Amino acid sequence: MSEAILFAAILTFVEKGYDNASMDDVAARASTTKRTVYSHFGSKDALFRSALVKAVELFQSEMPKLADPSDPARELEAFAMGFSDLSTWRGAVQLQRVVMGGAERFADLGKMLHEQIIEHAEAMLADYFEAVATLNARNISQTRENYWELASIFLNMTTGPQRFATLLEHRQPSAVHPHVGGPSDTDRPAIQRAIAIFLAGTSLAAPIADNRP
């Protein structure tokens, strides 16, 4: 029942925000009673926190993997496209907005989101960059911190513009989860160009071809 309540809570907070969502709403969506919801989570605040943790776990499980260090152009494009699509999906965007809107109440949750989403992605990228450099016998970075810096630069170059534009309502978030509706090609040309510049600038590998018509 706890899992059902958490999934119901995620959907409810996405649709209504924190202030307008009620425990009755969550109970109805989970096909249970408000008393049961309170018995599992104690308060609306505790439920929201638990729901956000669950949402982060789901996001992490859906993130693309980085596997083949011999083809960084392809691997990085797939990763950036997948991360961008997940980050600009309506559910993910709305939960971020709810946390931002309650920054005073949920200051620690903003930190948690950054650590578990952005820094988690950067850690994956740092590991991958180190593997690429090792495979190619290129000593482009001598410390772990250098790979983290490269990861941060890469993530911002390839996904930052669309993530921020969507979060700030400059463009519409995707209404359909990318694992349901399939990947969007909207940002692919920009991501490919960013990757070409990144790879050429870091000497991790030869730049990918420019596919612009």
Task: Give the total of beta strands.
Answer: 0
Count of helical regions: 10
Order of helices and strands: HHHHHHHHHH
Relative helix content = over 70%
Q: From the 3D structure, determine the CATH topology of the largest domain.
A: Tetracycline Repressor, domain 2
Question: What is the number of domains?
Answer: 2
Strand count, sense and barrel status of the largest sheet are: none
Structural class by SSE content: mainly alpha
Radius of gyration: 19 Å
Strand content: under 5%
What can you tell me about this protein's structure?
Pfam families: TetR_C_7, TetR_N. Keywords: DNA-binding, Transcription, Transcription regulation. It comes from Devosia aurantiaca. This is TetR/AcrR family transcriptional regulator. GO terms for molecular function: DNA-binding transcription factor activity; transcription cis-regulatory region binding. The protein is mainly alpha-helical and about 210 residues long. It folds into two domains: about 55 residues, Arc Repressor Mutant, subunit A; about 150 residues, Tetracycline Repressor, domain 2 (Orthogonal Bundle), CATH 1.10.357. It is about 70% helix and about 0% strand. The protein contains ten helices and no strands. The longest helix has 29 residues. It is elongated and about 60 Å long.
